């Protein structure tokens, strides 16, 4: 009996080892343009962008719609979010080739994709460089409003592997914003947020307070 138990546990260790090894989890996967197009719900993630942790408290839902443009390696992203009850929408173009999303101006963004164990999800691992600052984000999107607990566990493990803070998940019951909002030009908005050092300092303090008082 003991032997059987031992054997079973060895088998299960043998099976789960590759799945949970950091090398496998943080190794970027191949993603084709067709796979990335369309509407995605933001389900949760982790970021060291200043303010992202306190913002996650006010951000109750977000989705993106990825569409093609006349240029075959350029995609358009329409991003809509509900922050503190208000819906807003912005749009920007990105270069997408070799399973990598790129923005070169006015800041640098590079996004690759990691495994999720969920067939209708996409997990973006993003690096943003603005001036001398580098920020990293891990963002999980799904075609559905929510994902199964094991997908959340994998995400947590991936954040750990990347030495990032624990992911903050959206509440799938939150109301999402409608499709027909007039979008603003997104890159200039994002860039002014990235370049505002004073706001970074305030946001970092908010993030620390948030982690201490709200998210512990
Ligand atoms: C980046 O760092 C260098 C060296 O510390 C400094 O001279 C430069 O002004 C910084 N650039 C920005 C945009 O902060
Ligand atoms: C996403 O974009 C496509 C192409 O413009 C459009 O047909 C579709 O209705 C959009 N979906 C949403 C949710 O905005």
Explain this structure to me?
The chain is built from seven helices and ten strands. An eight-stranded antiparallel beta barrel has the order 1-2-3-4-5-6-7-8. The protein is globular and about 40 Å long. The chain has 216 residues and is of the alpha+beta class. Helix 4 crosses helix 7. A hairpin with a 2-residue loop joins strand 3 and strand 4. The N terminus is likely disordered. It has one domain: Calycin beta-barrel core domain (Lipocalin, Beta Barrel), CATH 2.40.128.20. Bound molecules: 2-acetamido-2-deoxy-beta-D-glucopyranose (2 copies). One 2-acetamido-2-deoxy-beta-D-glucopyranose (NAG) binds next to strand 2. It is found in: Secreted. One of its GO terms (cellular component) is extracellular region. Its main location: secreted.
- What is the 3D shape? globular
Q: How many domain units?
A: 1
Strand order of the largest sheet: 1-2-3-4-5-6-7-8
The biggest beta sheet reads: 8 strands, antiparallel, barrel
What's the end-to-end separation, in Å? Answer: 43 Å
**Cα-atom radius of gyration:** 19 Å
Encode the helix/strand succession as letters: HHHEHEEEEEEEHEEHH
**Broad structural category:** alpha+beta
Describe the protein's topology.
Elements: H1 2-20, H2 22-25, H3 33-36, E1 38-47, H4 52-58, E2 59-68, E3 74-83, E4 86-97, E5 100-103, E6 108-114, E7 121-130, E8 133-142, H5 149-161, E9 168-169, E10 184-185, H6 186-195, H7 197-213
Parallel strand pairs: 4-10
Antiparallel strand pairs: 1-2, 1-8, 1-9, 2-3, 3-4, 4-5, 5-6, 6-7, 7-8
Bound molecules: 2-acetamido-2-deoxy-beta-D-glucopyranose (NAG) (2 copies).
